[in-house]
Design goal:
The structure is a homodimer of 146-residue chains. Chain A contains six helices and five strands. Chain A is an alpha+beta fold. The first copy, chain A, folds into two domains: 78 residues, Orthogonal Bundle (Arc Repressor Mutant, subunit A), CATH 1.10.10.10; 53 residues, Ferric-uptake regulator, C-terminal dimerisarion domain (Dna Ligase, domain 1). The model of chain A has no long low-confidence stretch (mean pLDDT 89). Chains A and B meet through α5 and β5 of A and α5 and β5 of B. β5 of chain A pairs antiparallel with β5 of chain B. The structure holds a DNA duplex (30 and 30 nucleotides).
DNA sequence: TATCTAAACGCAATAGTATTGCATTTAGAT
DNA sequence: ATCTAAATGCAATACTATTGCGTTTAGATA
């Protein structure tokens, strides 16, 4: 994550700064979406400090570079695990443990665009989030641990 | 919209109150997503007043009853035009004029669930938003009115 | 390695968004 | 007309987000 981010930042002409690396590091460790202020708190626990405005700006850049994604319905950000793969990135979100699974599927994209096309709508990008239970939480439910 | 909402509220044992009807009326007229505070402003222009907390609560209820939807990435709410149809409601959003098109498609749902199932994820509901240009805005772009 | 500059950051102020608890009001049942 | 649980209004508070501007710094150049 860090290594790749440095590469991308450099390649696109953006400076490799301490705040940027710190945010990337947090995202890299996080197992669920984190908000700008959560990132700030996490850094604080490490004895570090970043202004929240800076964090907002870093996250905006990372999303722009496809190194992270914003999950609107969660108000949080997560690292992108698909690399700079083209097309729509989709998410499965376990609303028990908060775990995120990122995926992409060309067939789904085609189908969505097809339906849109029928009414003359020209799709540019999607936001797709599936909510449910991840396999381990689902097993937990079955076992009666509600 | 109003008539149907009254029916649903009543049927589900919720009171039919003035604030609820006023919010429903605003949503019914709106051609794009509106935030709680926007609703408050619109009512103000009509010489009416609702506390923003009330508006939040009304919207929450309307979503619960499937009479409205929240569009997370837009931070706004829109009326549901599909009725109490089961399944995932999807949206196409024109980011030029803000127009919303709501639709549902069982095949897409099945496909998404299928993919999720492969990794043991149990989908309960989706959030799906396609961003692009509606047919009239697209024509406008082609005509050079950028 | 020192110098330089555009880019990035920190700070302060401010605006917008959202939630909670509690007192008051009211829909609608009797 | 009366009554009560449900709903609303109010006040306080917390969280989220944006903007402008002065200061710092990454990294290019010599």
């Amino acid at each position: 994550m860090i290594r790749n981010s440095i590469q991308v930042l450099h390649a696109q002409g953006y400076k490799v700064t301490r705040p940027r690396l710190q945010v990337v590091e947090i995202l890299g460790k996080a197992q669920k979406p984190v908000s700008p202020y959560e990132i700030q708190k996490m850094l604080k626990q490490q004895g570090r400090y970043l202004n929240h405005v800076t964090i907002y700006r870093v996250l905006e850049l990372l999303c722009h570079l496809n190194l992270a994604h914003k999950l609107p319905s969660e108000k949080g950000f997560i690292k992108c695990i698909l690399g700079n793969r083209e097309g729509c990135h989709r998410f499965m979100i376990c609303h028990k443990c908060g775990a995120i699974q990122e995926y992409a599927d060309d067939k789904l994209c085609r189908n969505e665009k097809e339906i849109a096309g029928e009414i003359g709508f020209h799709t540019q990008y999607h936001v797709s989030e599936s909510y449910g239970l991840c396999s381990s939480c689902y097993k937990g439910e079955l076992a009666g641990n509600v």
